[in-house]
Every structure is written in C-alpha cells, then in structure tokens.
C-alpha cells in the first residue's frame, strides 16, 4: 500500500513540475510583451494629448461655436466600444472590464462593438446587439483599424444613429495595478472655463469649424488607439502577475508533495524493517 502511495505522489510531483514550467514560460513571454506594450503606451500619449488640446482650444475660444459633436441631446441609443483580451489566464483582467460594462448596459438601449475574443464571446452569449464581430483579435488590431472604426462611428453619430459613444477599456496604472474604466467620447463636453479663457491667438485655416469637424474623427481614433494600447499593457501585466502567482503556488505544492513522499517512503522502510525483525 505504501508503494502505491509513493507512486501516486511521484506522479503528482511530475505533473506539478510540468505545470510550473508552463506557467514560468508564460510569465516570461508576458513580461517580454509587457515591455513592448508599455513602449506603445508611452509613444501614443503625445499624439492624443495634442489632439485633445487642439479640440479644447477651439471649443473654449469660440462661444458661438456649434457642432453636432457638441450638441447635447436625449440619450436614446448608445454604442459601447469594449476592449477585452483574446485569451484567458490573465487574472481578473477580462472579467473586471466586462462586468463593469454590463452593469452600465442594464439601464441603456445600447449596441456593442466588441474588440477581442473574450468580449465577442461574452456579449454574443448574452444576446446583445453587436455592431460587428470583425475585431476578434485585439492583438492584431492596427492603428489604421482604429481610425477606420472612429470615422464610421463619427458618421453614424452625425446621422443620428447613436446619441452617445462610450469606450470601455482597462487603464494601465502599473505592473501591479490595472483599473477598468469607461469614457464617453461623444458628445464632447465644453470646458467650464470656456468663458474665462477668451479667444485664442491661434488662427485655424480655413476656419475653426472646418478644422474641428475634420479633427474630431482623428481624435476619436487617437483615443481608441490609446485605449487599445493601455488595455494591451494591462492584459500583459495581469497575465504576468497571474503566472508568477501560479508558479509560486506550484513550487509550494511541489515542496509539500516532496515532504509527503519522503514521509511515505520512510514509513514503508520502517514497516519493512519491522516485518523482518518480527520474522527473525
């Protein structure tokens, strides 16, 4: 009986060692991808900030400025852009952002544009209307795709198909902290300091309204690409943390199983000695 017990323990130890090798490899891959993702986040922020400052300057320096992107109207139909991961094994990364968006959708008539396999599967299983299922691979979505989506949504918003455009993504705070968030893209809100700011010294050609109408879709594309970069970095950070925790748990289980194996082997040896002495 003791021999069977030690054999089972040895098999479990081998299994845990194989698991440890897999989780360690996944941790190293996630760490490598995280460095590239962090670089993309850093590089994408200046473009987004310049677009945002230009929009704010035009809006705040023109009190008589009118645009469909600024007009407040009753929210009858919303569209949510939701960015999640392509795979699991990333801790609570996917579930956190999907639960946050689902809680907001309960009180709204909304269509979802999911990005990433987990987002597509999640909203499809709940029978929610999907704008498209073309972006099932968030990792392969390019900056060109982001601007294409932004221009289509901007046109649909101007036609009145949607009254609100919201994006749900995961904000990359640090390697150990990722925060799910939602951000309303349209309609744009005028700053409370608009009246105090006055007219800007910048001259826009051919005019403020023309520049504004042209730059808003670019702004939406920049925000979408920035959110995608943030989410990708957050996903890799969450996966790295999860795999590191799994590796540590495997090491602890191997140590515990090794102790039990030694105890079982020692018990078997002691029993054999006892039987030999008793027989003699």
Would you mind describing this structure in some detail?
This protein is an alpha/beta fold and 280 residues long. Helix content is 62%, strand content 12%. It has six helices and four strands; from the N terminus they run αβαβααββαα. The protein has a four-stranded mixed β-sheet, with helices on both faces. The longest helix has 72 residues. The radius of gyration is 28 Å and the shape is elongated.
Determine the mean pLDDT.
Answer: 84
Main sheet: strand order? 2-1-3-4
Strand content: 5-15%
Largest sheet: 4 strands, mixed
CA radius of gyration is 28 Å
**Would you identify the regions where 5 or more consecutive residues have pLDDT less than 50?**
191-198
Helix content: 55-70%
Characteristics:
single chain; 280 residues; alpha/beta; four-stranded mixed sheet; 4 strands; 12% strand
Helices and strands in order:
Elements: H1 2-60, E1 78-83, H2 93-105, E2 110-115, H3 117-125, H4 143-158, E3 164-174, E4 177-186, H5 194-197, H6 208-279
Parallel strand pairs: 1-2, 1-3
Antiparallel strand pairs: 3-4
Helix pairs in contact: 1-6, 4-6
């Amino acid at each position: 009986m003791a021999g069977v017990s030690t054999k089972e323990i040895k098999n479990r130890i081998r299994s845990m060692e194989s698991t440890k090798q897999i989780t360690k490899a996944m941790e190293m891959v996630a760490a490598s991808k995280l460095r590239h993702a962090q670089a993309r986040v850093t590089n994408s922020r200046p473009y987004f900030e310049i677009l945002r400052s230009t929009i704010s300057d035009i809006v705040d320096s023109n009190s008589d400025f009118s645009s469909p992107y600024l007009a407040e109207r009753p929210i009858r139909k919303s569209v949510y852009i939701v960015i999640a991961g392509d795979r699991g094994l990333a801790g609570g990364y996917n579930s956190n952002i999907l639960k946050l968006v689902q809680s907001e959708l309960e009180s709204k008539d909304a269509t979802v544009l999911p990005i990433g396999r987990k987002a597509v599967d999640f909203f499809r299983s709940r029978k929610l209307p999907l704008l498209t299922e073309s972006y099932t691979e968030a990792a392969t979505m390019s900056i060109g795709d982001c601007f294409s989506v932004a221009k289509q949504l901007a046109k649909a918003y101007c036609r009145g198909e949607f009254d609100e455009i919201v994006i749900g993504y995961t904000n990359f705070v640090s390697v150990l902290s990722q925060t799910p968030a939602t951000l309303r893209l349209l309609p744009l809100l005028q700053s409370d300091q608009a009246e105090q700011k006055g007219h800007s010294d910048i001259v826009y050609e051919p005019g403020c309204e023309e520049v504004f109408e042209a730059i808003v879709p670019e702004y939406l594309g920049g925000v979408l690409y920035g959110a995608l970069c943030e989410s990708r970095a957050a996903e890799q950070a969450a996966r790295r943390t999860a795999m590191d925790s799994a590796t540590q748990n495997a090491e602890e289980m191997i140590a515990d199983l090794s102790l039990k194996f030694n105890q079982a082997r020692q018990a078997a040896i002691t029993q054999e000695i006892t039987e030999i002495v008793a027989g003699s």
